[in-house]
Design goal:
globular, alpha/beta, RNA-binding, 375 residues, three-stranded antiparallel sheet, 19% strand
Length: 375
RNA sequence: GGAGGGGUAGCGAAGAGGCUAAACGCGGUUGACUGUAAAUCAAUUCCUUCGGGUUCGGCAGUUCGAAUCUGCCCCCCUCCA
């Protein structure tokens, strides 16, 4: 990556709430925000080709540092010419740092000041991740945006635990920033658990370090909805207006809309792709489990209001057949639908923000798809 | 014709007198999934008015008690003629 060409252009803020519309400029193209980012942990949005990823209107996707380090290894990705060339995807990309794996693989790691020692979930190998090492791996992978190494604090956590962890995450952020050599955009991650003073402190300290963007982490890990929403409120006031704000691990329809209303620009979640692979889809008629026997002879489309490839071409009976027969196409078609469904809702949100009617839009969507809440 | 082996829930397959409405797998049904250890996991799967009722090829026995023991019958498989 040559010259720095990463910045957020905020074009409009809804007059009635914090929601904002803008363009995120990256070396691999512009992304309209707010946006939802499909998760492609192993340099693939599971079951989808790069063409399909683009066809669902996705502006940016993520991959994961921990998982790509384990296989194929960042050196191979680098030799391939970077992750974009490796996976033949030329759109904007972001790599998560492995901070989430500090949480999700808690039984297989030890945290120390220097960094985290993991026992590989694949073969038990010892893997050491320090903030500097993580940045080095992310530089080799070569995404447009890279994340600082952090600890995603579990919920619930005591104040003492959250404080110690957050202070360490801040030290790691500083160390990672100092180690960072490329022009890739580097984001800091606001932790602090559910404690407002810690969230505030963390946000303020990160802003002092001057990152290219800021994430709100430690969300969507099993905490009640109102706690998650408060965590967003605790950080947003301290984040700079002109830098992108990324709410990590969110998610479902209601969380996404709530985040957007509070001024979040980017979100990601495995939910739409995971539940699709497990047979569940979000539709304009509510939640549908394609496995259900009632769809055996249902020759109507999945969602008549959806413009995705799946809904334009296939019936529920066929999708159910594919799923039940464990044909890979079934999971792929359902993944296409779920991502397109969610992304089209976010597209609608962007249009609404431009016209200062985001709050009405949000109410309308939540009222219409009320039973999609809590996904 | 002779010699063996076997028939257990939708299917496959354990069980060899009470702890067995019957392990386990598949299939069926339902549900969960939030910076992906996840094409994974969980529940349920004889009938029931939830009191109970009826089951392990069939019938008849032995026993306080039988899928399990005995007799006869029916069916399937393998080998030999």
């Amino acid at each position: 990556m040559e010259k720095k060409e990463f910045y957020l252009e905020v074009l409009h803020v809804d007059k009635n709430c914090g929601a904002r519309y803008g363009i995120l400029h990256t070396p691999h193209g512009d992304v309209e925000v707010p946006c939802f980012m499909p998760v492609g942990t192993l340099a693939t949005v599971k079951t989808l080709s790069p063409e399909e990823i683009k066809s669902i209107g996705s502006g940016i996707i993520l991959a994961n540092t921990y998982h790509l380090h384990l296989r194929p290894g960042e050196d191979i990705v680098e030799k391939a010419g970077g992750v974009h060339k490796f996976m033949n995807y030329d759109g904007p990309m972001l790599t998560d740092s492995g901070g989430f794996q500090v949480f999700s693989l808690a039984e297989k790691r030890k945290i120390k000041e220097e960094g985290v020692t993991f026992k590989s979930h694949l073969n038990g190998d010892e893997i050491f991740f320090s903030p500097e090492i993580v940045i080095g791996i992310e530089e080799k992978i070569g995404a447009d945006i890279i994340m600082s190494f952090d600890e995603c604090i579990p919920y619930p956590a005591t104040y003492e635990y959250a404080k110690d962890s957050t202070l360490r995450t801040l030290r790691w952020a500083q160390r990672g920033k100092e180690a960072h050599k490329t022009s890739q955009a580097l984001f800091g991650i606001v932790q602090g658990g559910e404690f407002s003073d810690l969230r505030k402190m963390c946000a303020e300290e990160l802003v002092k370090m001057d990152f290219d963007g800021y994430s709100i982490g430690g969300t969507s890990i099993g905490e009640p909805k109102d706690v998650c929403f408060k965590m967003i409120d605790m950080a947003i006031p301290y984040l700079p207006f002109d830098k992108p704000r990324y709410l990590m691990g969110v998610g479902s329809l209601d969380y996404i809309l709530e985040g957007i209303g509070k001024g979040i620009d980017m979100m990601d979640c495995v939910l739409p792709t995971r539940i699709a692979r497990h047979g569940t889809v979000m539709t304009h008629n509510g939640r549908v489990n394609i496995k259900n026997a009632k769809f055996k002879e249902d020759f109507t489309t999945l969602d008549s209001e959806c413009d995705c490839y799946t809904c334009k071409n296939f019936t529920k009976a066929y999708l159910r057949h594919l799923y039940v027969a464990e044909e890979a196409l079934g999971q792929r078609l359902l993944s296409i639908h779920n991502l397109r469904f969610l992304i089209s809702i976010v597209e609608g949100a962007r249009e609404a923000i431009k016209e200062d009617r985001f709050l009405e839009y949000k109410d309308e969507i939540l009222k219409k798809y009320g039973d999609l809440r809590g996904f």
